[in-house]
Amino acid sequence: MKTPIQLRLNGEDVATFADGGANLLDVLRYSVGDLTVKGGCWQGTCGTCTVLVDGAPRLACVTLAESCSGNSVETVAGLRRGADLHPLQTAFMEHFAAQCGYCTPGMLMAAKALLDRNPNPTREDVVDAICGNICRCTGYEPIIAAILDAARKDARRSA
Amino acid sequence: MTVTVKTFDRLADAASAISTERGAHFLSGGTLLMRAVNEADPAIKTIVRSTDPAFRHIAVSSARVELGAGATMAAILAERELALLHQVARAVGGPAVREAATVGGNLFAPSPYGDFAAALLALDATVTLAGGYGERELQLEELLGRRDRGATLVSKVTFRRPPGDAFRFAKVTRVHPKGLSVLSIAALLPLASVRITGARIAYGAMGRTPLRAKAAERALEGRSLDAAGIAPALAVAADGTSPSDDAIASAWWRREILPIHLRRLLLGADQV
Ligand SMILES: Cc1cc2nc3c(=O)[nH]c(=O)nc-3n(C[C@H](O)[C@H](O)[C@H](O)COP(=O)(O)OP(=O)(O)OC[C@H]3O[C@@H](n4cnc5c(N)ncnc54)[C@H](O)[C@@H]3O)c2cc1C
């Protein structure tokens, strides 16, 4: 049986139907068509499907889609600020924080969750924020540097 | 394969549904159950969930702590009055897991998961079971012993707030800051002047479910927390445990390192 689901996705209302028991990742990709959310393991282990639900990081693959009905969901598709990239996206490019790029959407959203709550994170805070996100290419250091840099630049901009 | 999802406003109705329907499983945070759903586990025919606000409620007084079984690790971390559990909640997965993972789900998580349950076991927690015809209470230890029988819905967990710094917790992992447990140890160490009276020690990942280290507890009775005082407890630290070989560690390794980490926990970092 299909269940109706309504979300506020990246600031816009969307309505769709999902199979019983469908996870949020599959609904976002296959029903809504937001392909910026990636699936890796469907076990909650790799973190690449990380999205924000009401501002909090969630693993879309192990989140029952219908439990998010009525909630706000943010994905990488909503990161841009008008014509500009989000400071995190710019910093990821400047620091070569993406190689194969598979983990990047989840890393960006995990980082956004951190910076939204804590605009001046320490290195330790950053490591904790991305500790559920696996990257097999970069060795993590460029990602950590990019997030710290984005935080610094955002702080300077708003000062 | 699709499953039927049933959502109930009242926890009691959810409890009735899981006790009467074959193949009905309760979904809390879903960090484990949704894996099985994604894998199309044929045993899962119906998902039962509840939006009852009482299920997530946290109440803390100077004497008692009451955690709704649907309270998440993130909610515990956001509660300043629950500082004694912050280290434990932070030990459960990364931030996205902690936003979903609940207290109730942790009580049913297979080893090597169950770090939070081990802490609650050391804290001598009582669980309240929801049922269509009312609630009943059970010691957590008893629940853990029969948790695989299914058709049980825990509505809340309560324990007496321990005095001062009597509660300690350590999780041993290979990957930092987030990794699955090689083992975890929780200890409640009440002191009467300088002697321990009524210690409770619980291990995670040292058996099929979190379990108590009863031999070590007995060996600590009336002893002081120094190297000589704890030596008898360390000698029997692994008694009664039955750890598994898994991808994280072998059973042998778990038993070998257990006394080392118990020693560190009991003595405190400054004395090791
Ligand atoms: C990447 C990752 C890392 C993890 N790391 C850790 C870790 O470090 N330590 C750790 O302990 N765990 C860890 N876990 C496991 C899991 O997230 C936690 O154990 C969590 O607390 C389970 O809760 P849940 O609400 O998500 O459970 P669910 O997935 O909703 O349920 C799990 C099981 O418990 C049953 N259940 C849930 N709530 C109740 C209830 N109130 N009454 C009766 N039965 C119930 C369900 O029916 C199901 O069988 C990890 C999981 C993932 C995906």
- Provide the succession of SSEs of chain A: EEHEEEHHHH
Strand content of chain B: 15-25%
pLDDT averaged residue by residue of chain B = 95
Question: Mean of residue pLDDT of chain A?
Answer: 95
CATH C-level name of the largest domain in chain A? Alpha Beta
- Domain count of chain A: 2
Coarse shape of chain A: globular
In short:
With 159 residues, chain A is an alpha+beta fold. Chain A contains five helices and five strands; from the N terminus they run E-E-H-E-E-E-H-H-H-H.
Structural account:
- The complex is a heterodimer of chains A (159) and B (272).
- Chain A has two domains: 2-78, Roll (Ubiquitin-like (UB roll)); 87-158, DNA polymerase, domain 1.
- In chain A, helix 2 (87-94) packs across helix 5 (141-158).
- By secondary structure, chain A is α+β, with helices and mostly antiparallel strands.
- Chain A contains five helices and five strands.
- Chain A has a five-stranded mixed β-sheet with strand order 2-1-5-3-4, with helices on both faces.
- Chain A has helices at residues 24-32, 87-94, 104-117, 123-129, 141-158; strands at 2-9, 12-19, 50-53, 56-59, 72-74.
- In chain A, strand 3 (50-53) and strand 4 form a beta hairpin.
- Chain B has 272 residues and is an alpha+beta fold.
- Chain B folds into three domains: 4-50, no CATH class; 53-160, Uridine Diphospho-n-acetylenolpyruvylglucosamine Reductase, domain 3 (2-Layer Sandwich), CATH 3.30.465; 167-266, Enolase-like, domain 1.
- Chain B has helices spanning 11-20, 33-38, 73-77, 83-90, 95-100, 103-107, 115-122, 140-146, 214-220, 227-235, 251-267, and strands spanning 4-8, 24-26, 46-50, 58-60, 64-68, 126-130, 136-139, 153-160, 167-173, 181-188, 191-192, 195-196, 200-204, 211-212.
- In chain B, a hairpin with a 5-residue loop joins strand 6 and strand 7.
- Chain B is 32% helix and 24% strand.
- In chain B, helix 9 runs antiparallel to helix 10 (227-235).
- Chain B has a five-stranded antiparallel β-sheet. A four-stranded antiparallel β-sheet of chain B has the order 9-10-13-14, with helices on both faces. A three-stranded parallel β-sheet of chain B has the order 1-3-2, covered by helices on one side.
- At the A-B interface, strand 4, helix 3 and helix 4 of A face strand 1, helix 2 and helix 5 of B.
- Flavin-adenine dinucleotide sits between chains B (25-33, 69, 91-93, 97, 100-102, 104-106, 108-109, 113-116, 152-154, 180) and A (44-45, 132).
